[in-house]
Amino acid sequence: MSAAILYWSVIAAQSMLAVAMALAVYRMTRGPRAQDRVLGLDTLYVNAMLLLLTFGIETGRTVYFEAALIVSLLGFVATVSLAKFLMRGEVIE
After folding, report:
1. What is the pLDDT of residues 40-74, one digit of tens each?
2. What parts of the sequence cross the membrane (predicted)?
3. DSSP label at 30?
4. What distance in Å separates the CA atoms of residue 59 and residue 54, rounded to the nearest whole number?
């Protein structure tokens, strides 16, 4: 019974993360300001990382955990560079 509860919990989490990713894409495309679009991108990469982690829990393969680590690192760098660009107008000084 414990495996069934884990399975359905992971399926529910994946479906909620998919809805959250769709809402983040909506915010990225329809954001009234550039700051809203950066926030949508930030939310999108966090949700993508969590979705990869749930895939890793579901399948038991470690490649999903490594991919989630790479997505989180690249997403952080992208968010910082976009925020710096919005504040100063250039990324590399």
Report:
1. 999 999 999 999 999 999 999 999 999 999 999 99
2. 6-26, 38-57, 63-87
3. H
4. 9
93 falls in which pLDDT band (50, 70, 90)? Answer: low
Nearest to 8 by CA among 53, 65, 47, 57: 57
Q: Is the pLDDT of residue 1 over 70?
A: no
CATH number at residue 43: 1.10.287
Give the chain's domain count.
1
The reported pTM is 0.86
Please report, for residues 4, 6, 7, the alpha-carbon distance to residue 11 in angstroms, rounded to integers and kept in the order given: 11, 9, 6
- Pairwise CA distance, residues 47 & 41, whole Å: 10
Q: In the numeric block, which tokens belong to residue 70?
A: 């790479």
The answer to whether residue 65 is domain-embedded is: yes
Q: Within a domain: residue 93?
A: no
**pLDDT reading at 20 higher than 80:** yes
